[in-house]
Amino acid sequence: LSMAALPGRAGLGRTTVSQALNGTGMPSEATVVALASALKTDAEPLLRLRARALPPTARVATVDDSDSDPQTRFENWYRRYLEQRYGQLSVIGLDLSRPERACWPLDAAYLSLELSTPVRSVGPTDSRGGIAAGPGGGGLGVRVERAERALAGQRRTLVRGLAGSGKTTLLQWLAVSTARHSLPPELAHLEGCLPFVLPLRTLVRRGELPAPHEYLTAVGCPRDSAQPANWADQALIDGRALLLIDGLDEVPHAQRAKTRQWLRELLAAYPQAAYLVTTRPSAVPEGWLADGGFTELTVRPMSTRDVAVFVTRWHTAASSNATTAQERAHLAALEETLKDTVRSQRDLARLTTTPLLCALVCALHRDRRGHLPHGRMALYEAALSMLMHRRDRERDIEAPEGLSLTEHQSVQVLQRLAYWLIRNGQTELDHDTARALVDDALPAMPHIAQQADADGVLTHLLARSGLLRQPTAETIDFVHRTFQDYLGAKAAIEARDIPLLVRHAHDDQWEDVLRMAVAHARPHERASLLRRLITRGDRTLKHRTRLHLLATACLEHATELDPAVREDVQQRTAALLPPRSDEEALTLAAVGPVILDLLPGPEGLENDEAEAVVNTAGRIGGDAALTVMKKFRASADAGVQFRLHADWSHFDTEDYAREVLAHVPDAHYVRVRSAEQLSVLRHLRTLTRVEFTGNFTSGEITSAIRPEELQRLEATRNSALENLGFLQAYTSLTNISFSQCRNVADLTPLAATPVTSLSLYECEAARLEDLRCLARLKSLSLNVKHPLRNLEALPVDADLASLWLGTLSCGRLRALEGITRWPNLTTLSLCGPVDGFSQISALPKLSYLMLQVRAGLFMLAELPPTPQINELWLGSWEAEDDLATVSMALPNLKKLTINCYDKHWQVDLTPLRGMADLSITINRADEVLGTEHFPPGAITRKPRPRT
Fold first, then answer.
1. Which residues of 698-714 are buried (b: 16+ CB within 10 A; e: fewer)?
2. Residue 48 is part of which domain span?
3. Same domain (yes/no): 286, 376
4. pLDDT over 90 percentage in the chain
5. 851: left (phi over 0), alpha (psi -120 to 50) or beta
6. pLDDT of 821-871, one tens digit each?
7. Are 237 and 327 found together in one domain?
8. Whether residue 384 sits in one domain with residue 286
9. Closest of 712, 727, 711, 769 to residue 745, by C-alpha
């Protein structure tokens, strides 16, 4: 495990990991737990060791207080109290059969999210996320950092974040870490502080906001009366207090000005204290606390990697409470299943962008023993219910905006906004349009109209629904596109806009809307929608494949459907699924990610189908496709394995290497196109063949590949390779290929290697005279411009068994004169016509002949009967080709392969009817005649014809 891979596996920043392993400071408990999980070891011994290693000043939570003064004893008790009270994370608003499962340890589950802050950029974009605004690289940009780095050195911070984005959890982590003296090095400026967690939703119910001596009473601390006199006040004056003020948005609108004044008075009275305030984005305007010296940070949506780490930590935390080995094993299985599910279902992946929603999915998945609520729609309904209604209700937040809406009423208004966005192809709408849409809805909703006007309703939905946000002062959008599509689809069905849905079905922006509309629709509406969809596909050749596949994807949401309609839909895609060829894979991949939900296997697939399915997913890439690739990683088929190793540039490099490549049986081949891919090679099992594409240096190759393992090396489009001396360390290397490596010239270093096969393609600097020193050479492939007129002049003294001449080489040769120098030649491949072709009949051991590109069947006309050749591979086929020449020139032929790659011609096998033992493979022919002259199984067509 490298230092480059460890931070990603542990879900920690590189600085945090480096300082934990090498720094002088003490890593936090959360860091130790995360590293232990990544290294697959028990965290408990490490935590005990950490406790023993803590300096005396950091052990206040566990030392004997008997000899301390009363204030120190109370302070030590208070720190232990904070650890216990805020050391657990909980999810609010879950329908769980066992509510005790809604809590888990903070140490094990906390995930440091990314925070962004506006910055003034004076140069080009940097690697930390600075985004230049103007063409010259200057202007206002955004810096994105992990929470501990973003908060480094900050003593007054306002953190904005959407509902469930992790704001409260961040405060809990700061409270516990500060109480334990276990803050990361980035937050050393808060070391020794006393944290006071002040949830405003609780404080405002008391009436007046509390003074410092009332903090413990206000939050329900059981020993509030035991605190020493002026204890909190003195901590604030000394700058030892950290005020963690949670939820400005949960203060009723009428009281926010008063809350702001309360904050101002605290800042004036206690300027040395540290403050961190949280709010939802729309609750207070930008710069609301700027005059108080507050830095504004915004919680970013979770990345794909964050989601995977969160799922791992959630299940690790759940395992810590498991009582049996069987339950822990079950949780481990659930973790892998859920990761695959989130990856494979794109709308689910878009949903899990906040810790709250991730936790919702994890908890529901466990509670239902690996099954999320039946169908994705049920999951959306559970999330919507939690965000819009149950979360506030179960936290006793009542009408902070002076307005009370039922869940159904909120949905009705939000549907209008969502459907407007979808119909108009927009992702956001201006505030005036949103207000007008709400105003249009109010006459039909008198209960709401009696409470507030359109502005009041819109303000309430922005603040409390958890579904809307205000990215700028004048615009509004949905926090998740999934929710917009869900609500918009519901509105479309209620408006009977089925023709409109079908008219836009070819647009990938409407894909999820169509699928959800099928789920929302009643049976007769569902049947009408699907009939119209396939009918439009039948009539529109340009969009036919996409529309028919979309209709098939909609079937999973059709809980009740006319069987005749279902059969009509399935018939349209029967000719497409599963794919059987590269062409079909390309066609399906062009449809986009919607096809991933329909790809079958690996059970029940023939080898060609399995390879084509992997090819399709590999072309699409991304997390959903990764799940498909994982299903096939145990396949022993060579074609499938090739696709798994060749098609990984569209995936997260580390995830793919760890979850796919590391599990492929007898893995031997991998194609490397980037530095990221190169960095993970050492983590894979034995690699015998590696293909490098790009300017990789000899040093980079040497550092990534163990010399004793590599047997075949291929370098393509590489201008960095010059001196080949580094290959002498590879004691098992037998096959080398250089393609378009313009600086590879001196081949003599290969004489000191065990190389027996060499390929040179368009390497014009390569010195052919150096071939003479390669005495071990058995196979040679050449496609270079050279002055040679015949093979007699080719400087190869080795006893070749295989010779391949490309179009460049064949074009320069006048004749094959000299080919008999290699009497042990068994394989010959030509890519163009060459005089003296008949001389190959004098090669006694020649058994395999390949004619491709410009070479073809016509060349056999000048060949006398050559019985030693028993296998022929034709790389091209022309309409005028006649197989009669095959039976005359190659009377003992046992295997014939015909490729119609460029043009799908008709192939007539009748002239070969007397060759009873012949096995024939035909690729991509439109029509094959004469098959009746051969026994069953003698002819193989690729792709296999569909009946």
1. bebbeebbeeebbbbbb
2. 6-53
3. no
4. 24
5. beta
6. 999 999 999 998 888 899 999 999 999 999 988 888 889 988 999 999 999
7. no
8. no
9. 769
